[in-house]
Amino acid sequence: MTNIRSVPKIIDMLGGNDAVAALTSSTPKAVSNWRYIGKFPASTYLVLKSELLRCGHSAPDHLWSMKPVPRADSRCTA
After folding, report:
1. DSSP secondary structure, the chain, as one string
2. What confidence tier does 71 reach under pLDDT thresholds 50, 70, 90?
3. How many Å apart are CA 6 and CA 12, to the nearest integer?
4. Closest to 40 measured CA to CA, from 15, 13, 18, 21
5. Please, are residues 4 and 58 in contact by the beta-carbon 8 Å criterion?
6. Domain boundary assignment for the chain
7. pLDDT computed for residue 50 by the predictor
8. Cα-flanking dihedrals φ and ψ of residue 30, to 5°?
9. CATH second-level architecture of 2-65?
10. Could you tell me if 76 and 52 are in contact, meaning their C-beta atoms sit under 8 angstroms apart?
């Protein structure tokens, strides 16, 4: 599995602005903006991560401004 580490590379790998716009129910202009700022909106997380996985790729969650999940043992007291 290849870990793709940038928004422009993900967009290109998934077929470009028009394809990603259709996949996310967005506009090509919106996708162009994501490419420019280097972040995807959180609302696209599930669909894009699923499509990347289907294609045999992954991407770091920070590209969607997601915070990492805390370790399981860091907050549990019981």
Report:
1. -EE---HHHHHHHTT-HHHHHHHHT--HHHHHHHHHHT---GGGHHHHHHHHHHTTEE--GGGGTPPPPPPGGGT---
2. confident
3. 10
4. 21
5. yes
6. 2-65
7. 97
8. -60, -45
9. Orthogonal Bundle (1.10)
10. no
0.70 surpassed by pTM: yes
Amino acid sitting at position 46? L
Among 31, 1, 30, 29, which residue's Cα sits nearest to residue 14? Answer: 31
State the residue for tokens 């043992």: 73
Q: Token pair of 71, please?
A: 């370790």
Rounded CA separation 47/44 (Å): 6
At 50, list the tokens.
């699923």
Q: Are 12 and 65 in contact (CB under 8 A)?
A: no
**Average pLDDT value for residue range 4-33:** 98
Task: Give the mean model confidence (pLDDT) for residues 11-29.
Answer: 98
